[in-house]
Design a protein that fits this description.
Layout (H helix, E strand, L loop, with lengths): L1 H5 L14 E4 L9 E4 L4 E5 L2 E3 L32 H26 L7 H38 L4 E3 L1 H26 L6 H26 L2
Helix pairs in contact: 2-3, 3-4
């Protein structure tokens, strides 16, 4: 999750190899030969690696707008006159922050799971929240960039999804699901109702011990 979230912030490995969409934008005025979208910016491509400029949080996927290329020239018509791509890509950002917040909480409360079952249940609750928001993020990002890829390809502009970014997104969903199950299993292990049976055992133990003592006294009596 952190690798995808920070992709594009720095031009260093592995962050400069993680992106959502790469498009041949050589025929778009003012655009680099190849462009990559991340949550922070549009990055040019040099030697197969992203070269990103200044970062802008919650950077939208909206090619014709002033935030991207600021032109309609050679932009696929499906992007023009609609807010669909802008809104879908931007709404994914706050959900990812929420998912990271609950994920970090689950990580730290997981330390309590080593000592007590309530710690496991608290961690499971946090993990379920992280899972729900991560599913929302993964669905939004997948939908908007798959649609964008198809529109660019239909416009004879070669476009490819960032395999690493989407692999990390959906792998994190699977990992959170497993974490939820494991936390719940950890909380349920060894859970038994021993209240009444324990008291009964103690009472029986007291009289049994007293009876055994009387029998020993009889045996040693002259």
């Amino acid at each position: 999750m952190w690798l995808v979230f920070l992709a594009g912030v720095k031009n260093s490995n592995p962050l400069n190899n993680i992106y959502f969409l790469q498009v041949d934008t050589s025929n778009i005025p003012g655009a680099p030969a190849q462009s990559r979208w991340t949550w922070w910016n549009i990055c040019a491509v040099e030697n197969g690696r992203s070269q990103c400029g200044s970062s802008h949080p919650d950077y939208p996927f909206d090619p014709p707008s002033d935030r991207n290329f600021a032109t309609d020239v050679n932009i696929p018509p499906a992007f023009i006159g609609t807010n669909h791509y802008f809104l879908t890509s931007r709404f994914s950002w706050p959900f990812e922050i929420i998912a990271l917040f609950f994920g970090v909480l689950s990580l730290f409360t997981g330390l309590l799971a080593l000592c007590t079952r309530i710690g496991s249940y608290i961690s499971a609750f946090m993990a379920w929240l992280a899972l729900i928001f991560q599913i929302i993020v993964s669905c939004l990002i997948t939908a908007v960039f798959v649609q964008g890829r198809n529109k660019f390809n239909d416009n004879n502009q070669n476009a490819d999804l960032g395999v690493k970014a989407f692999a990390f997104l959906w792998t994190s969903v699977a990992c959170w699901f497993l974490a939820c199950l494991m936390y719940c299993m950890g909380g349920s292990v060894g859970r038994k109702d021993r209240g009444y049976s324990g008291r009964k055992q103690r009472r029986r133990g007291f009289f049994s011990a007293r009876h055994a003592s009387q029998e020993r006294n009889k045996e040693v009596a002259p």
